[in-house]
Design brief:
The protein has one helix spanning 42-45, and strands spanning 20-22, 25-27, 32-33, 39-40, 55-57, 60-62, 67-68, 74-75, 82-88, 95-102, 109-112, 123-128, 131-134, 137-140, 146-150, 153-156, 161-170, 173-182. By secondary structure, it is mainly β. The strands form 5 sheets. The chain has a 10-stranded antiparallel β-sheet with strand order 14-15-17-18-9-10-11-12-13-16, with no helix packed on it.
Length: 183
């Protein structure tokens, strides 16, 4: 005669958060993990959706370059997109219109019009949060003259204003001008 004993493998197993013991192990519901289903994945249980390739970590979105906001649904450059006016010590008493628009080729780039004060429309900047940087580049004005913007210049937005210092070179002469922009 042979006797077989049955043991309840789930007798001493406690599964949390709605987990169910099967064969001595907890089968956890969606959004929970761990030996006893004690680890909550806040991204799942709080139904967090991150847009534009953002990644959810601990219930919050970590945004890809160029995006911000709770769900990464806002382009960082949007705060700069507007019609602006700037003044400069290089032309005292004058103000110049300028527009900052979205560059079509990259979500972190903007196009600046009239950076030289001679109706150019080819200058660009790279946005990162509340700052943007105008890298070294060639800018062509309305007369077809090519200006060189030398070195990287960075501006930080403060409300509806920012200032930036630009180093220009054209035809063998160069200037350094501080530009003060307002909306």
């Amino acid at each position: 005669m042979t006797f077989t004993s049955c043991t309840d493998e789930c007798k001493d197993v406690v599964c949390e958060n709605g987990g169910i013991c099967e064969d001595g192990n907890c089968d956890c519901p969606n959004g929970f993990s761990g030996v006893s289903c004690e680890v909550e994945d806040l991204c799942v249980t709080q139904n967090v959706t991150c847009l534009n390739d953002g990644v959810c970590v601990d219930g919050e979105c970590s945004c890809d370059d160029g995006y911000e906001g709770n769900a990464c649904g806002t382009e960082e450059r949007e705060k700069f997109i507007a019609d602006w006016t700037y003044t400069t010590g290089c032309a005292p008493g004058s103000s110049f219109p300028s527009s900052i628009t979205s560059a079509a080729d990259n979500v972190v780039r903007v196009t600046l019009s009239n950076l030289t004060g001679y109706n150019d429309n080819s200058a660009y900047a790279v946005v990162d949060g509340t700052t943007f940087t105008v890298p070294s580049q060639s800018v062509v004005d309305e007369d077809g003259d090519t200006w060189t913007v030398e070195g990287a210049s960075t501006a930080t937005l403060a409300g509806d204003a920012f200032s930036i210092t630009i180093n220009y070179a054209i035809g063998g002469s160069s200037s350094t001008c501080a530009l003060s922009y307002t909306k």
